[in-house]
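Hi support team,

I'm opening this ticket because the web form for multi-chain structure prediction keeps timing out on my end. I have pasted the exact lines I submitted so you can reproduce it. The total is 597 residues across two entries, so I didn't expect it to be a heavy job. Is there a limit I'm missing, or should I split the entries? Thanks in advance, R.K.
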Amino acid sequence: MAKEKKKTSQVVKYNKWGYIFLIPFIVVYLVFQMIPLFSTIYNSLFENYRQGLTQIGPNWVGLANFQKIFAGTGNDSMPTYFLNTMIMWIAGFVPQILLSLLLGAWFSDTRLRVKAAGFFKTVIYMPNLIMASAFAMLFFSLFSDAGPINSMLIQMGIISQPFKFLSHTVSARSLVAFMNCLMWFGNTTILLMAGMMGIDNSLFEAAQVDGATSTQVFFRITLPLLKPILIYVMITSLIGGLQMFDVPQILTNGEGNPMRTTMTMIMKLNKYLFSKDFGMAGAMSVILFIITGVLSVIVYKFSTKETDY
Amino acid sequence: MPSEEYNSVEGGFGIVARRVIAYIVLIIITVLCLFWFYLLIVNSTRSHAELSRGFTLLPSGSLYKNFDNVIHGTQPILRGMLNSFIVAGCCALFSTYFSAMTAYAIHVYDFKLKKAIFTFILAVMMIPTQVTALGFIKLIGNLRLDDSFLPLIIPSIAAPATFYYMKQYMESALPHAIVEAARIDGSPEFRTFNEISLPIMKPAIAVQLIFTFVTNWNNYFTPALVLHSENKKTLPILIAALRSADFLKFDMGQVYVTIALSIFPVVIVYLFLSRYIVTGVAVGSVKG
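Hello R.K., no limit was hit. The queue was backed up. Here is the completed structure from your submission:
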């Protein structure tokens, strides 16, 4: 009996180390994430900005900042920035997911046996590791009015005058979407491929014995079984898309040209932060926090459900 | 061979045609991925005068001259590379070591708040850092840590995504029996973690070192808010400064070399380790 008691206390003694090992994470998280989060929410309820040389506030204004951020005039309001972000995200995500599904299906197809798959995977994943701001600067230089792309198109006789890519809404947004697609389709392909490899091979074999074509196998077996991973990829990409910043910021020098049609929510937040308009920055952050929070709950539901089976 | 039997079901021609299409598409995509980097290399080797003359796919001989101009130019690019290296390197070390420690606490020990803390970390994993940026700069202002590397490095200790990866890896690679055996041999808990568990975690640590390094090397948003003095700026901030400068006055050869200096260190490391990195992405995604 005494021995038993001693053993229990030994285990308890060990288990206190669980708390000790957690100290660095918890302390740093509380200080650098939790306190800033509450401080951000608190700041969103105050009027606090600079007008010329005079500091206005901080004065308690309740939810007035939120009203202001939603009201905005013309192109200068939260809904517009949200819409801009979403348009550019969707324009990049749709080709990205289609391309990834196609490539994933090819790489994991045992009958197709793509040679040099390692080489192709290396190539398509590479843009994901590139510094987004440098990549955007590269695209800005390449697509500038006197840049190589314009001179190439002129030399080929496709256009006679330089096309101002960044002065048209459609081309500016398309450039951002294209860069996002290029940077992320490799990552998505690898995620989807991991999911496709996880599907029980006997299902494919049974379908083949029954004479199903590759197209049928893809739409009837692969796609339905991939649904959880597809949803996971979509929502995590959406959360990433809401944080879209580096590419449009550098490409348009933080202006979101033309006419703020490429201005994303984080770019606006960045503008508020640099102009020290803390009330509005707080309101913008809280809105972003709520949106990502809701999306995170969905991701969390999906990933825990998956672990169960 | 069963596979040949299946081939005959669909017909030999079908699979050959599909293979041809697959290769053509893959080659187009490869070109689309590499074209920009090729243009970057070519343009880095051309002088400003050559660049303004038009487009070509052939490199020229001004790489060294451009590089020399960048080093002696107005922007402290080499200093920026060093700063980026210091910040990214420290973040990588701190983040992986302490995430492994956090994961170890959850994986090995059994305590009352374990489940609650684990759930909490997973729940906050997706919250973007930008959301707390306002409070963050106010905090470091109060702590007088403004314009310093510390507020960029220390927060990397609490990295929920790295923690989650480590936890996943431990579940498959670190059996409790090893820890028990070390205890019986009289090894203190902290030493068991450092000298027995960490070596077992080597593959996961390597993957996370690379990923955290790259993420922080590329990070623009937070450093731009924290760092102000010229000799502390990291590469992405210098790139942004290059963008907002009067572009027409710039030597384009220098611009391309600056971009190349930001991009190619990561690309070179990637080309050596690509196999492990690509596998690492896949492992991280597959749920436990």
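A quick check on our side: Residues 141 and 210 of chain B are 31 Å apart (CA to CA). Let us know if the file doesn't open in your viewer.
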